[in-house]
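Subject: Interface between my chains keeps coming out wrong

I've been trying for a while to get a sensible model of this assembly. When I model each chain on its own everything looks fine, but I need the whole thing in one frame so I can look at the contacts. Pasting all components below, labels as-is. Any help appreciated, I'm running out of ideas.
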Amino acid sequence: MATVTLRFTPLPEHVRTARLVATAVARRMGMDDEVLDAVRLAVGEACARAVRRSELAGRGDLVELRLDDADDRLVVAVVDRSRLEPDAERDSGLAMTLVEGLADEVVESAADGGGGSRLELVWGA
Amino acid sequence: MATVTLRFTPLPEHVRTARLVATAVARRMGMDDEVLDAVRLAVGEACARAVRRSELAGRGDLVELRLDDADDRLVVAVVDRSRLEPDAERDSGLAMTLVEGLADEVVESAADGGGGSRLELVWGA
Amino acid sequence: MDLSVTSREQGGRTVVEVGGEIDVYTAPVLRERLNDLVGHGHHHLVVDMEHVDFLDSTGLGVLVGGLKRVRSHDGSLHLVCTQEKILKVFRITGLTKVFPIHDSVDAAVGAAGGTQPGA
Amino acid sequence: MDLSVTSREQGGRTVVEVGGEIDVYTAPVLRERLNDLVGHGHHHLVVDMEHVDFLDSTGLGVLVGGLKRVRSHDGSLHLVCTQEKILKVFRITGLTKVFPIHDSVDAAVGAAGGTQPGA
Ligand SMILES: Nc1ncnc2c1ncn2[C@@H]1O[C@H](COP(=O)(O)OP(=O)(O)O)[C@@H](O)[C@H]1O
Ligand SMILES: Nc1ncnc2c1ncn2[C@@H]1O[C@H](COP(=O)(O)OP(=O)(O)O)[C@@H](O)[C@H]1O
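Reply #2:
Try treating it as a single job with all components included. I did that and got this:
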């Protein structure tokens, strides 16, 4: 199982870098263009949300994007250390609608070892 | 100071992702095309070297690429957990010649907290 | 900044041509340009999305905000978009029911958008 | 795989046109193609780098390996490259002194490269 993890200061300018990384990993796995577009957008949304949550909480702890390639499934986890409850963010209507419309599976849980959210997205069951 | 960290399984296919991330961060800092090319190549060399060292040692510990934007200086660190001495890699002639020819500063040291190498590259003094 | 926004007058509408990536980083620029146009009396907008490569929810939020703003002046906001990738973003969020979406700028300018503009 | 390698015969040389990125991931493909050509008796190579976007030390190593291999058959390996970005990589490593580098395929094919090919 190959793993790529990106950790970044919660700033909007780094969300594009996160999209680049996710798209590069998905492309390497041989996913087709439609899935690549879905990964790019959904991972961007999840990371932008993590940045918003961190800004809302006034916390600068790095956001973590983790990409695991396991048996042709792409498992993505976006973890923020905002100390906010997983569902604490307001105004995430459009963002979460997109994430849920684009990924094959979406699971949110509390980030272990430190308050925050862990949003897991899966493609290719 | 903004930070982006990429950690990846030591496989050649992830070196391109590392280049993408480094170039994206340098571009965001407003570096010009010539510096961008230098960052892309030197960071790629440093990461490919970390992958080779890990393969040589038969270790799968993640390689870490850390990019810090500090007062218009880009400080890059590539850390492998190969357990090899910093200079243990053979055949790094061309790779290290490029790294040294492309970065403004290059410093190698033992990776703290676990054997391996920490190669630091700096642009824009 | 991989976003470009240019505007011109055509057939009594203000055509806003957007190019590049509209995302969490660049969307504030688009919001400012739309607010500026509406503030200067341009209440009938056609936003041409044909050169947009990427659109996220922040960008959608800016377009929804623009729509609300022009409506408060009895204006209109029409979109031009034929790119499947971008249309999908409107479809998933149900916003295809909110925005009139056209195949070309001419079609968008020609469409009767709410109240006809004074010009 | 963002690397393409195609070859053709021209003026008694084998012109190998390389496109895309030659790096630690793709270089093994180029090495195999060069070995294959030399193994099949193509000992005078012209490697056209004009469509190469990226070249790293692994790629340089493959070119050096190719040079050694053709030389062991009294052959030659000339390069075509005018891209400053790529030339810089040869310059920093001192390999501009090792490879004859030309501005065009015609110039490379026309250059007297070691022993003239039999064809
Ligand atoms: N399907 C929809 N139809 C009309 N307006 C919508 C729709 N979905 C969202 N909006 C509007 O878009 C704006 C932003 O949406 P919101 O749900 O707050 O998401 P977010 O803030 O995460 O982008 C709000 O003003 C909301 O009313
Ligand atoms: N300046 C040079 N001139 C000629 N050959 C060189 C030069 N630098 C490197 N080489 C050759 O290139 C090949 C690979 O170089 P090496 O120093 O082993 O780097 P690496 O293995 O890290 O790519 C070796 O065969 C070496 O002899």
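Reply #3:
Confirming on my end. The two ends of chain A are 15 Å apart (CA to CA).
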